[in-house]
Amino acid sequence: MGSKDLKLLDVFSYESLVHAVAGAMGSVTAMTVFFPLDTARLRLQVDDKRKTKSSPAILSEIIKEEGLLAPYRGWFPVICSLCCSNFVYFYCFHSLKATWLQGQRSTPGRDLIIGIAAGVVNVLVTTPLWVVNTRLKLQGAKFRNEDIQPTHYKGITDAFVQIMQQEGVGALWNGTFPSLLLVLNPAVQFMIYEGLKRQLMRGVHRELSSVEVFLIGAIAKAIATTITYPLQTVQSVLRFGQHGQPADQSRLRNSLRSVMYLLTNRVRKWGVLGLFKGLEAKLLQTVLTAALMFLLYEKIANTTFRVMGVKRTMASH
């Protein structure tokens, strides 16, 4: 069997599939538990006239104005997108890692490069799903900004059709440029997570405790989110599709100008702290979600490997 066959086996391996399924299941469960916090975060990012308040206060306003189930509006498309996105990311991350390392130990630098590569694939494949779920999640919301026009989508398929008919196929990839920059978020998160995991498991071949997994998952996500938050805000605004921007024939140049325009506009209105509007809600949601996701992911993967009698590769640890 040649080296090409071995690399193909690494890419299409049972182990990569288990990691992908476990990551998807863990993220879906965690996001469902903390979904209302994501609703609060998105409102603060997109509705620039809504005053910054604590997450409970924002959710209380939303429930009072829009009903008890409003914090879970758009849950289904978000969960579908998240499931696909995490499946793609975890599969690519572990396949690329197995192909590159070939039994060697990993390093933070390698984890970062592999995370970026997996993130780029993930963004290009799943951005249309995220554009649609952002629109559906904000449909029917009561905005403080009167300039935002209400949308009327009947569901995921109808949203895809309307966006393509009214805005063109390219609109499904709105926010792709900041999303590509934001591959640093999961890449940094995985680099820190894998690094802390290696430190805890150094010299001892054992499974981490639930508390250890939860804590290192929370730490990794908190650092990655804080570093990349301004770009996450721009990403949400671009996906929503209702933003003022200078037109340009070049799509790449237009994307660059859109990102710069939105960042400078926020700084001009609210100062540098305006770039971090909604960070408290985002940190609360994303840190808890990531920590629970990593915990469930590790438990599901380890249990699956045990039940199927497959020895998990330890080289990456």
N- to C-terminal distance? 27 Å
CATH topology: Mitochondrial carrier fold
Ranges where pLDDT stays below 50 over 5 or more residues in a row are: none
Rg (CA only) = 20 Å
Fourth-level CATH superfamily: Mitochondrial carrier domain
Family: Belongs to the mitochondrial carrier (TC 2.A.29) family.
Protein name: Peroxisomal membrane protein PMP34-like
Membrane topology: Multi-pass membrane protein
Organism: Sinocyclocheilus anshuiensis
Sum this structure up briefly.
This protein is mainly α.
Description:
The protein has 317 residues and is mainly alpha-helical. It has one domain: Alpha/alpha barrel (Mitochondrial carrier fold), CATH 1.50.40.10. 72% of the residues lie in helices and 0% in strands. The chain has 12 helices and no strands. Helix 5 packs antiparallel against helix 6 and helix 6 crosses helix 9. The mean pLDDT is 81.
